[in-house]
Amino acid sequence: MIQRLALYYKSEKGKMSMASIKKILCAVDFSERSYNALEQAVVLAKQSDAELHLVHVVSKPRNLEDYQQCACSLVEHIEARMILDSYVKLSAIIEERIPKAVKSKLTIRQGDAATEIIRSAQKESADMIVLGTQERKGWRRFLASSVAHRVIQQAVCPVVTIQAAQH
User: What is the C-alpha to C-alpha distance for residues 36 and 161, in angstroms, rounded to an integer?
Assistant: First the structure.
């Protein structure tokens, strides 16, 4: 169950009405918190008759030295397989979790999650981004540069963050 829904605006034009939201981008990383965000994105899309665009980002390996011993073709094969697996999972999510009445599409991107979410939002002219977030308390909040925080800071459209209920 969703406890909090926070809407962050970076627009100087003031608040947007639901009628002006025609494209909603929802980031999905296959975690429970991203499924909670998707649930809320579906509600928002229904209320505003908006298109729901799901995006999943396949991260490139951070430390390429780990892969220097592998043949380049093997690394390319692994990356291609990760993208294909993500496409299959995201397609299943659309089937299972998004009503047919909500127009939806999916995109798989590769790279840094925050950067690619923002690029997708710009490319699709998204009116809103919805994503799940982890609550970080105390010093962890300052040490972690979370994807949600970076998206909020850099997005040119409103960002809705969904935090899952604490168990």
Answer: 10
Strand 2-8 relative to strand 159-164, pairing: antiparallel
Domain ranges of the chain: 2-164
Give, rounded to a whole angstrom, the gap between the first and last alpha carbons of the chain: 10
For tokens 């993500």, what's the residue?
86
| Overall CATH class of domain 2-164 | alpha beta
Model confidence pLDDT, tens digit, residues 136-161 = 665 455 444 588 889 988 998 999 98
50 touches 24 (CB < 8 A): yes
- Give the sign of the dihedral formed by CA 20, CA 108, CA 98, CA 103: positive
pLDDT in tens, 86-113: 999 999 999 999 999 999 999 999 999 9
Pair of tokens at residue 45: 């899309």
pTM of the full structure: 0.79
> Is 149 in contact with 20 (CB distance < 8 Å)?
no
Give the DSSP H or E segment for 126. none
What gap in Å lies between CA 152 and CA 96, rounded to an integer? 28
Q: Is the pLDDT of residue 164 over 80?
A: no
